[in-house]
Amino acid sequence: MMKIKGIAVLLLALAAAVIISGQEVVEEIVAIINDDIITFSQYKAEEEGLYRALSQQLQGEELEKQYVLYKKNLLDTMITNILLSQEAKKKNLNVDDQLKTYIENLKKENAIESDEELIRAMRQQGMDFEEFRRQLRDNLLRQNVVMAEIQPSIVVEDSEILSYYKLHPEEFTEPTEYRLKGIYIGTEGKTEEEIEAKKSEISAKIASGEDFGSLASLYAEGPEKENQGDLGRFKKGELEKNLEQAVENLKAGETTPWLKVRGGWHLLKLEEKKESRLKSFEEARDAIEEKLFSQKRQEKTEEFIKKLKEKSYIKILKTDL
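Above: the chain's sequence. Below: its structure in token form.
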């Protein structure tokens, strides 16, 4: 079955109830929001959609944990979405171009040529394209309402960016990075004498000046054998503790002693070392500005929704959900 990238996350954000088969509808009113209502069947559909979206990303205990967490706020999310949709209607917003662009990008990301192919792929996953499109459109409208209300008021001053840079140097410090080659010898099926003999033979050839990569291709028993011993790059903290301790004081071109690892022995050669460094303010500036902007956007969004709720008529009739 084809799995379309990006849809699960979007459905989770929307708490989507995208279903193909029908279901029994119990028209008990859960909440009144100005001139709109939420029925019990609508709530249950959102609840089921939430679970389906989460189950595409999580399993077992973590799935149940996150489901309980999201479900706790589900009714409030539905009420907020209705309020924002009401505002979008008042403002007569149009998101047709955005909707078209999103769907075209979705097809490109998944190598889908046509709407018909996308519809078939979504149907295989139990999703109805028209319902998905409707909910996507509603979500874009709600986003545009929020942006129209708060975007003009968000300003990030240069002084704020500089202050954040000075107060959080750890966020902009690149860790030490090592580029390594290695030779791994496993212990399974070998006597201790055989292992020691092979280690000594390799060490002697390295000491005599033979190429480490060529020796790795000849002797290594791990995947590095196919790449002349190349293990790639590792940032500080990514290696096992005993390996990192052996590597961190080496100079480029030097090798470690044989290191005991799970299931065998490793000999490592440091090809290159990039020392830890603090990024300059200019290098970090854009990331800081984006982060501060996002923080302010979140705060402003919460303020806007709070005020929207305060001026609206909201009556919850069913609390035992």
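The mean pLDDT is 89.
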